[in-house]
Write a structure and sequence with these properties.
The chain contains 16 helices and 10 strands. The strands form 2 sheets. Strands 1, 2, 3, 4, 6, 7, 8 and 9 form an 8-stranded mixed beta sheet that branches. Strands 5-10 form a two-stranded antiparallel ribbon. By secondary structure, it is an alpha/beta fold. The chain is globular and about 65 Å long. It is 50% helix and 14% strand. α9 packs antiparallel against α10. It has 2 domains: 183 residues, Spore Coat Polysaccharide Biosynthesis Protein SpsA, Chain A (Alpha-Beta Complex), CATH 3.90.550; 121 residues, no CATH class. Keywords: Glycosyltransferase, Transferase. It comes from Ketogulonicigenium vulgare (strain WSH-001). Its EC number is 2.4.1.-.
Length: 317
């Protein structure tokens, strides 16, 4: 089963129906929790792909919605082998969900996600990004699972919700002897960068980082200027890359890197760095293999931003 959280006050996106369709095709039933009111047409469309649709106020943001979905589902005492939690802050899947769900089912980890973040060198600071989580039967069968959700404190500050609950969730289950893992780790980004052999692609990646992050630009631009090509610059910057002074945030990197890593999702955030990433996808024609619903949404996602044309122009340089 999956709890799929939506917040779409302007109307249901086609990509959300795609997510449900893909999960259903892989034998995963869905409970949809909407943190915004649904029109009758949207509710009926969701019900065609869902076991249950819940509408609630946007109290507690993502984790508030997750909590309501989990407690509602567990109260019905259905036989659940594994439980997925995911929200609509990502496009998933950009292609199809088959390989991702196969990896989820093959893992021995008790808590599994798409992306593991590490905020320091210590594993104790690692956590799984909360836009996609999978809980094993072992966790679901434990008293710790229900206790976590029953006692979850709802916070009405979005950034605090993510910062606190994301990290705390991982630590809560680690301290109780459960294992965590993810499809992609931050270290995978470093190994992918090291294996780039095309100087033009490497230049695009380095220039993208310089454009979206001034702190990283101060490392990249001087080295790029005195290197014979971008591969040499990459090699000179490798210590800074490994120290995570450059390419700090996996989800904002140039889309060529994401595609090389076979990341099955893209973030929807409307921030400038993500808009630059989407512009590069469009300009370079990298969305051709995407699901049509996802491709169409990406093409129009930033069109209302006043700086959209400048973003597309930057991506084409």
């Amino acid at each position: 089963m999956a709890v799929v959280l939506l917040f779409q006050p302007d109307g249901l996106l086609d990509s959300s129906l795609l997510t449900l369709t893909e999960l259903n095709a892989l034998g995963i039933g869905c409970v949809v929790v909407s943190n915004a009111p649904l029109s009758l047409d949207d509710r009926n469309a969701l019900l065609q792909h869902s076991y249950l649709v819940i509408e609630r106020p946007n109290v507690g943001y993502d984790f508030g919605g997750y909590r309501e979905g989990v407690l509602t589902l567990m109260a019905r005492k259905l036989p659940i082998d594994a439980l997925y939690l995911m929200n609509d802050s990502i496009w998933f899947p950009v292609h199809d969900a088959k390989d991702t769900i196969a990896a989820c089912r093959a893992t021995n980890a008790d808590l599994y996600g798409l992306h593991m973040s590490t905020v320091s060198r210590h594993k104790s600071r690692s956590y799984v990004q909360s836009y996609f989580l999978r809980f094993s039967h072992k966790i679901l069968s434990s008293k710790s699972f229900m206790r976590y959700w029953e006692k979850l404190h709802l916070i009405d500050n979005k950034s605090t919700v993510v910062r606190y609950h994301e990290w705390h969730l991982a630590q809560y289950f680690i301290k109780r002897g459960f294992s965590i893992d993810a499809l992609v780790h931050s270290r995978d980004l470093i190994s992918t960068i090291m294996n780039i052999t095309d100087a033009d692609e490497m230049r695009l990646m380095l220039e993208h980082q310089s454009a979206i992050c001034p702190k990283e630009a101060k490392y990249i631009r001087p080295v790029l200027a005195r290197s014979k090509d971008a591969l040499e610059a990459r090699d000179r910057l490798m210590d800074d890359i490994k120290a995570r002074k450059i390419f700090v945030t996996l989800t904002t990197v140039h889309p060529i890197l994401l595609l090389r890593m076979k990341l099955p999702f893209l973030k929807k955030m409307r921030r400038g760095d993500f808009a630059s990433q989407r512009a590069a996808l469009i300009v370079l024609g990298l969305t051709k293999g995407f699901n049509p619903a996802v491709r169409a949404e990406i093409a129009n996602w930033d069109s209302r931003r006043p700086e959209y044309r400048d973003t597309v122009k930057l991506a084409s340089l």
